[in-house]
Design goal:
Elements (H helix, E strand, L loop, with lengths): L1 H8 L1 H22 L11 E5 L2 E4 H19 L5 H28 L5 H9 L5 H6 L10 H9 L6 H29 L5 H12 L1 E10 L12 H10 L9 E10 L4 H20 L3 H8 L7 E2 L6 H7 L7 E7 L2 E25 L6 H19 L4 H8 L3 H4 L4 E6 L5 H8 L5 E2 L4 E3 L2 E24 L4 H17 L3 H10 L6 E7 L12 H8 L12 E2 L3 E11 L10 H22 L6 H8 L4 E9 L12 H8 L10 E2 L3 E11 L8 H8 L5 H13 L2 E2 L6
Antiparallel strand pairs: 1-2, 1-18, 3-15, 3-17, 4-12, 4-14, 5-11, 6-7, 7-8, 7-11, 9-11, 10-11, 13-14, 16-17
Protein name: Periplasmic chaperone PpiD
InterPro entries: PPIase_dom_sf, PPIase_PpiC, PPIase_PpiC_CS, PpiD_chaperone, Trigger_fact/SurA_dom_sf
Subcellular location: Cell inner membrane
Length: 703
């Protein structure tokens, strides 16, 4: 009784708590919003140049981009296309916030008159030209642009908006070009730089060197400690930039049909065969019951090889099958034939392309093709000659076989040659097309017969019972894998499971190794509540269930040796090897490099590099080693360096001889070569602008 009284006394508080909870549940998203009463900005998709990108604003722009894409393509955007649209919207924010500040400071813009000139004036943009080029003539017609613009107000609103967006992109591209051109024209190569480039390419030297590669010292004899790795990382921070990533191990449980599923499908097909045999409208019955779309009238060019072989034995009114094509089983009701307006034929060819556009190249190709045709007329094997000579690699692998094709499917000279022949056999002349010279053999005569076939295709798929059973197995595995040790133990119990590793997955990843559509797994791995050595719930992707375990994390703000362990270990190990080799070599004296190498013992090589340049020099065993080349070219003939460490090992260099570059008065070619590197400005400018804008990208937390 006392308890009931206590509840009554506090009922008002309870009602208030429930009421507040309901309000927060119903309108919490609006109250908390992007900038909640509890602080923080949980709805920030990112930040660019100090400007916060709100999720709602980003999603609105993304929806507009998606709607425009779907209106233009006439279909829904796939996951990959939606990912591309998200990237486009994000890049537009970078233009609006990061680049625009740069443009405004420099006074760069595109005037209305300039935009008109780009669209319909004397300097039409290539994008406009491409969009309004006549597909029949391949010629750009400015009048079609003007006509389109005059009619623009009569078009649907979404098309008007699409044009406005198109014009906006033209203006943005133009101002971006202006910005990048400032950097290009501001890049200047001096005469001294051009002369230095000339010397590096033209001065020749013959070098002799003793080389002890790092690999000559066995890795297992060199111990590398974590302390050494940490010391190396601390001294080379600029070379090893941290980034957010995750490393996981995972097992998969393929969702595949069982024997019971196969039996069920077989019984279903038998039932459908009876229905198809008695259906008053067999084409409608087939269309309703088929898992794959099929047509009613088929030419030979539209049939699979299996159906082509079987159709000749079909009796009108009969139901035939099932026939298997991959994982799909077909039954066919045959309704006889009728004549088509177009013919179908089967042919093979050998294509000889001209190696160039000159008349001599064309004549050479014709001669080669004529010689092959003569060999075939003399009894040579067509398939063998096609495999060895045809430039059409896809058909050459099949002995030149093109399969069945309809009249008009090939380029006109080829089609005319095939369909002007009444029977089969080798066409006795070369057929020239834009692709080259063809030697053609008709392997099945032309026919305009169409076969009436009502087809039902049923694909073998796992039943829900099968899916449930496989999911239960994966779920049990997940439940039992409470730690990395438990995960490994569970794998040992099931020999069918194979552990796969995905290293350093970025937060924006959509695929994991070869596994597609793995975005949910990536988001789980990056979730703040996911700890290392924690197993995941069951995920479904690509017709398989997946259970993963998080085995490693990296943080862009706090890189550790584990983030770069393999690379760091190689560097430190080679440093230790270099010290060991240098110490041993430095204690050896000898009149020649060969004598020093003999005293050093196994691993020491003496080689020559004859008549090489500094710019393109290559050492036989050491490969491209700029340090060694620089040391060698810095010597005088007959002189020798002390022991030094190169990129891939330890050296002693001698210069045997040197041929100076001849004096020239014009370095313009070398100046132009260096100047061409300024075309990298677009990439470098983009990187610099993004870095200056301090871009923070949180999209992976939302998508």
């Amino acid at each position: 009784m006392a308890l009931i009284n206590k509840i009554r006394e506090r009922s008002g508080v309870a009602v208030l708590i429930i009421a507040v909870s309901l309000i927060l549940f119903i309108v919490g998203g609006d109250i908390l919003g992007a900038q909640s009463m509890f602080g923080g900005n949980s709805q920030a998709v990112g930040e660019i140049a100090g400007e916060t990108i709100d999720y709602k604003d980003f999603q609105l722009k993304l929806d507009q981009a998606r709607q425009a894409f779907e209106a233009q393509s006439g279909r829904a955007a796939s996951e990959a296309e939606q990912q591309s649209l998200r990237e486009q919207v994000w890049n537009q924010y970078i233009v609006d916030f990061a680049y625009k500040k740069e443009y405004d400071e420099l006074g760069l813009k595109v005037s209305n008159d300039e935009l008109v000139d780009m669209v319909q004036g004397n300097n039409v943009s290539p994008a406009i030209q491409q969009s309004f080029t006549n597909p029949q003539t391949g010629v750009f017609d400015k009048t079609s642009v003007i006509s389109y613009l005059k009619n623009l107000k009569n078009l649907p609103p979404e098309q008007q908006q699409a044009w406005q967006n198109f014009e906006k992109s033209l203006a943005q591209d133009r101002v971006r070009q202006k910005y990048e051109n400032l950097f290009r024209v501001g890049t200047y190569v001096t005469r001294a730089e051009a002369e230095k480039e000339y010397q590096a390419q033209t001065t020749k030297a013959t070098l002799k060197y003793l080389f002890v590669p790092f690999y000559s010292v066995t890795d297992t004899t060199v111990k590398v400690t974590d302390a050494q790795l940490e010391d190396y990382l601390a001294k080379h921070k600029d070379e090893y930039k941290g980034f957010d990533s995750r490393t996981i191990q995972y097992v998969t449980f393929p969702i595949v049909p069982t024997k019971e599923d196969s039996t069920e499908l077989y019984n279903r097909i038998k039932e459908l065969a009876r229905g198809l045999a008695t259906a008053p409208n067999d084409s409608t019955y087939a269309r309703i019951n088929s898992d794959v779309p099929t047509k009613l009238y088929w030419s030979l060019s539209e049939m699979t090889d299996q159906l082509k072989g079987a159709v000749k034995s079909f009796i009108p009114g009969s139901v035939n099958g099932p026939y298997r094509e991959g994982n799909t089983y077909f039954i066919y009701k045959y309704g006889g034939t009728k004549l088509d307006t177009a013919y179908t034929a089967k042919a093979s060819h050998i294509l000889i392309r001209a190696q160039g556009t000159s008349d001599s190249a064309k004549a050479e190709a014709r001669t080669k093709a004529a010689d092959l045709l003569k060999q075939l007329q003399g009894g040579a094997n067509f398939e063998q000659l096609a495999a060895a000579n045809s430039a059409d690699q896809s058909s050459a692998q099949r002995g030149g076989d093109l399969g069945y094709f309809r009249q008009g499917a090939m380029v006109k000279p080829f089609s005319d040659a095939v369909f002007s022949m009444s029977g089969t056999g080798l066409i006795g002349r070369l057929v020239e097309t834009d692709f080259g010279f063809h030697i053609i053999k008709v392997t099945e005569p032309k026919t305009n017969v169409l076969y009436k076939i009502a087809a039902i295709g049923k694909t073998m798929t796992p039943s829900q019972t099968t899916r449930d059973a496989i999911y239960a197995k994966a779920d049990q595995f997940s439940i039992e894998s409470k730690s990395k040790a438990a995960f490994d133990e569970s794998v040992k119990k099931d020999k069918s499971l194979i552990v796969q590793t995905a290293n350093r997955i970025p937060e924006s990843a959509t695929n994991i190794n070869t596994m597609q559509n793995a975005r949910e797994i990536v988001r789980w791995a990056f979730n703040e509540d996911t700890n290392e050595n924690q197993a995941s719930p069951v995920f479904e992707t690509d017709e398989q269930y997946v259970v993963a375990i998080l085995t490693g994390k990296s943080d862009k703000d706090n890189p550790t040796i584990n983030d770069f362990r393999d690379e760091l270990t190689l560097k430190v190990r080679n440093q230790i090897k270099a010290e060991q080799i240098t110490k041993k070599l430095s204690g050896i004296q000898g009149p020649t490099l060969e004598a020093i190498a003999q005293k050093y013992g196994a691993g020491a090589l003496v080689e020559n590099a004859n008549d090489i340049s500094l710019a393109t020099g290559f050492l036989t065993s050491a490969g491209l080693d700029p340090i060694a080349l620089g040391k060698g070219f810095g010597l005088k003939p007959g002189k020798r360096t002390k022991v030094f460490t190169g990129e891939n090992g330890v050296f002693i260099m001698e210069q045997v001889s040197s041929t100076p570059a001849p004096a020239i008065g014009d370095y313009s070619m070398y100046k132009a070569n260096l100047q061409s590197k300024s075309f990298q400005a677009s990439f470098l400018v983009n990187e610099a602008v993004r870095e200056n804008a301090k871009v923070v990208d949180n999209r992976a937390k939302f998508f």
